[in-house]
Specification:
Blueprint lengths: L4 H13 L2 E4 L1 H5 L3 H23 L4 H8 L3 H8 L7 H10 L4 H9 L5 E4 L2
Antiparallel strand pairs: 1-2
Helix pairs in contact: 3-6, 4-5
Amino acid sequence: MNGEDKPLVDTRRRLEKKGWRIGSAEDFLGLTDEEAALVDIRLKLADGVRELRKQKRLTQEALARLLGSSQSRVAKVETADESVSLDLLVRSFLAMGATAGDLARVISESRPTHARSAG
């Protein structure tokens, strides 16, 4: 362990002593591997849409016009709202000029895990 990891290890130990666990959405929600993978892909796509939209300096309204949709729907896309289909997430990417390779890169990126209470 290098010097940079020690504070993280100490923090983790302190949290675990207080009843917190470090884990994944799969652990917390009792998801199957397939369900966890789908949630992860949706979150990655939603984050990617928001990042690409900002990179291209588009407003949510401008992206909505490209999609033939509404600003409120784009807001739901960017938060991975459960009412948003994978189709709309992918179409949002493609409407901004993303390629299949761009989609693959976004999906293959790792997401951080978060601490939560065991109680």
